[in-house]
Amino acid sequence: MESADSIRSLYRRFLSGITLKSLNAFYYACSYAKADYAVFMNVTARLALRLIPDSLDEQPIFLCIDDTMAPQKKFGKKFEDVSKLFDHAAHNGSNYLNGHCFVSAMLCVPVWNKQKISYLAVPLGYRMWQKKESKLQPAASMVRRVMPEFSGKRNVIILCDSWYVKQDLVCVVDEYPNLDLIGSARSDSVIYGLPPAKTGKRGRPAKHGRRLSIHKDFSLSDKKAGDYYTGCRRVLTNIFGARQVMAYVTSPSKDGGGRSLLFSTVFPSQLQIFCAWQKKAPLNQTGSSWMQYTPLFLYLFRWNIEVNCYGQKSFWSLCSYMVRSRKGIEMLVNLINISYCAMKLLPYLEDPFSKYRNASVQEFLFILSERIRQQVFYANLVQNIETHIKSNIIIKALKQLCVKQMG
After folding, report:
1. Which parts of 33-132 fold into alpha helices (H)?
2. Per-domain residue ranges for the chain?
């Protein structure tokens, strides 16, 4: 179906035609079934990893983390765990809305597309945020859940915005040898230079150098790297403890203007990435002078999770659930996400659908839904032809239709 505004709508328009189960059975399945929807993430991740060709097996994969709001206007107070939320992207005349907040994770894997490397973005799942916990906790839990699937990968990189570059999520990076993080940070984050060389004198050596300023201690490049002038250097910061990280400072103007800060736990020398074959700029720009900015360019893949959430809300009824319990809402949202993933993975997993790899998800959904409706119609037609008399009537009608079409 192109959309499912509610379980009732889905049942009336589709499910009732293929099953004898009642409507209440589907409500019960969402709210009380003992299915562990966390397993959906692992299954989706394994399917996505199968798409990576052998020639791209050493390329990094990305795990994007973000959150999205699901406003509930008319019946908002009747849903479990609904609350007043701040949304900086709200367009309702106020920055506050009544609804739920979902923490989401997305996997980006490399595939060949017209002799260029393109990253396919596959959403793994959603977790509803509760005010009694931080959004960092479900985010860290989702990362730990899927990391065993990536044990054979060289570089797994978390991409996230400044909200998630905090200790509760950063600590997960130290738990896995192949996991790193690239994320934006607050421009007023405290950063230090590297510790000075040991002098051999008595006393405790300094743990770090002097405190750095993103305005005074970073020299911007002479040319723009992408859309920004950029400066970078190795630093220490309290967020990552004693671990050295790359700090990138960007500005749209070389002289003056605001500056943004980004941290990367992975260094350019640790990456094995085929820049020349990348489909998107500025990552496909080659040359030794550009290599130091590779982690900064990789951060651009985080935008895929924003596009995914917008598409699921606009075309997949992600926020139109009419289930009241927290478990039921999470189950339904993740089932919708599975359907969305199927539309993205099928063109790569099944050769008959390969021509739809560059088509939009909505276009492929429409074509596939038409085929399913036809199959359901024919199946019901054959099932309802019970007697010889009915069969003769149907055959005669089909013959008349064929004659009319040929004439």
Report:
1. 39-49
2. 35-183+268-358, 368-406
User: Torsions phi, psi of 7, nearest 5?
Assistant: -65, -35
Q: Which structure tokens are listed for 176? A: 């896995």
Report the pLDDT value the prediction gives residue 91, as an integer from 0 to 100: 56
CA distance 183 to 204: 32
pLDDT of residue 8 exceeding 80, the answer is no
- For residue 109, the tally of other CB atoms under 10 A from its CB is 23
Of 179, 141, 138, 177, nearest to 157 (Cα)?
Answer: 179
Give the DSSP H or E segment for 361: helix 361-384
Measured CA to CA, the distance from residue 25 to residue 125 in angstroms comes to 24
Cβ within 8 Å of residue 49, ≥6 positions away: 61, 109, 149, 150, 153
The candidate with the shortest Cα–Cα distance to 298, out of 86, 60, 75, 83, is: 60
Measured N-to-C along each axis, helices 136-146 and 39-49 cross at an angle, to the nearest 10 degrees, of: 50
pLDDT tens string 38-90: 888 999 999 999 999 999 999 999 999 999 888 776 555 677 777 777 776 66
Q: Which two tokens stand for residue 114?
A: 């017209």
State the alpha helices, DSSP H only, in 33-116. 39-49
Rounded to the nearest angstrom, the gap between the alpha carbon of residue 407 and the centroid of all alpha carbons in its chain is 53
d(CA 69, CA 128): 10
For the segment 125-140, the average pLDDT, to the nearest whole number, is 90
Report DSSP letters for 246-257, one per residue. Answer: EEEEEESSSSSS
| Total count of residues recorded for the chain | 407
Taking residues 309-313, what's their average pLDDT?
85
